[in-house]
Design goal:
3 strands; three-stranded antiparallel beta sheet; mainly alpha
Length: about 220
């Protein structure tokens, strides 16, 4: 019995309706490039926007890769990046959408643990925000005990992403950091991205497409250090 198609997948299919799969596949890699650039610039609103676009293109990307290469690249950057930032933004609905996507495609099975971590991070981020907001200047190395949360690595990850997103400020204090809450707008988008007008191709873009078998697939072979 086939699994019921989640609402988010139906919306994405409607959005991509009538567009050749080759074109959608090209768009995926263009968006992937923009995700990487946004991450370097720490432009979180743009990063999340491009992650949402990549998720919208994920099904045609998977189908094309399996048809042409017999497998799907093991690294899908949009999934963890979207999960972590939606988690610290408190966007539970967005996490549920990604959960539905991951559970629907067998090729994404390895990301189920990341999804589970996302929901944990969502709750931990809310607790951190509440505690730090009521105790400005509290020490980061005391949070495990205060929050009664044993996973120090995950706690540090949440703090890192909250700092990158401009939600927390850290100030060095001896061997640890003082934490302060910063006011920021939460970024959330529940609708598939609207189609954008194609940009005028640059020389770099043309070469990028021409070298697709080598150059494009290197995106998922390369891991951030």
């Amino acid at each position: 019995m086939m699994a019921e198609v989640p609402a988010v997948i139906k919306a994405y299919r409607e959005h991509n309706k009538g567009i050749p799969i080759e074109e959608l596949h090209h768009r995926y890699f263009d968006v992937l490039h923009k995700i990487q650039e946004s991450k370097k610039k720490k432009d979180i609103p743009a990063l999340l926007s491009y992650c949402n676009m990549a998720l919208c293109l994920l099904e045609p990307f998977i189908k094309y890769e399996k048809k042409e290469y017999g497998q799907v690249p093991p690294v899908i950057p949009a999934i963890p990046e979207a999960i972590y930032f939606h988690a610290i933004n408190g966007a539970r609905g967005q996490l549920k959408n990604i959960q539905d996507i991951v559970e629907f495609f067998p090729e994404l099975e390895d990301y189920q643990f990341t999804v589970e971590q996302g929901f944990v991070m969502l709750d931990v981020a809310a607790r951190i925000r509440k505690h730090v907001g009521g105790n400005p200047g509290c020490h980061q190395n005391k949070l495990k005990k205060v929050l009664e949360f044993d996973d120090g690595r995950l706690l540090s990850r949440v703090i890192h992403y909250m700092e990158v997103a401009g939600q927390l400020e850290r100030k060095k204090s001896g061997k640890t950091y003082e934490l302060y809450v910063k006011e920021t707008k939460k970024i959330s988008s529940t609708q598939p991205p609207k189609p954008s007008s194609p940009e005028k191709p640059t020389k770099e873009t043309i070469e990028y497409h021409l070298e697709r078998p080598e150059k494009k697939r290197r995106w998922w072979q390369r891991r951030d250090k």
